[in-house]
Amino acid sequence: MRRGNIFMDMDASLSAYQQSQVLSDNPDYLGRELYRAVYRDLLSMKSALEQQKWDQLVNQGTHAQWIISALHDVADTSTRAGQDFKTLHRGLWEYLNDIMRRHDSKTLEEVTQVVVDLIHQLDQRLSVSDNRQVAGLGWSG
Predict the structure, then answer these.
(1) Which InterPro entries match (predicted)?
(2) Which of 9, 31, 78, 102 is the 20 to 30 Å CA partner of 125?
């Protein structure tokens, strides 16, 4: 079995460590990555709907719901933005449930657009703000 260069492996570990440090320093970075994961799940759900692969639809939908539930649970409800944030995620969770039960492609398109809008909003905030400054989408971070 051939092994790679040990220094390359150490560099990869260091890079992963630095990446995790950036993610933990600003919850908006982590949030954006979680929304991107949900977006990938939604694309897989669309494919499953088109191919009528119901098990795949439910598997991807459930994975998206887990992430949405985690985002829902970190909402800072002491602010109006946090309350809205929590309400949004509850609605997304319920819509995902409807998509899985009813095989509703129209609702899937709407949920996908909401997630895309959230990703774009975070991209915009992160591009203008300092890396250490929390944009404050409503999570307690």
Answers:
(1) FliS, FliS_sf
(2) 78
Global pTM reads 0.75
Q: Give the start-end residues of each E strand in the chain.
A: none
For 13, 18, 141, the CA distances from 4, given in Å and listed in that order, are 14, 21, 38
Half-sphere exposure of 109 (CA within 13 A, CB side): 4
Measured distance CA(98)–CA(34) in Å, rounded = 21
Q: What is the pLDDT of residues 17-30, one digit of tens each?
A: 555 555 556 777 88
Residue with tokens 């975070």: 122
- What domains lie within the chain, and their CATH numbers? 27-128 (1.20.120.340)
What DSSP assignment string belongs to 73-107? HTB-TTSHHHHHHHHHHHHHHHHHHHHHHH--HHH
Structure confidence by residue, pLDDT tens digits, 71-84: 888 777 888 888 88
> CA-CA distances (angstroms) from residue 133 to 19, 98, 119?
16, 36, 17
Cα separation values, 51 from 57, 90, 103, Å: 10, 28, 11
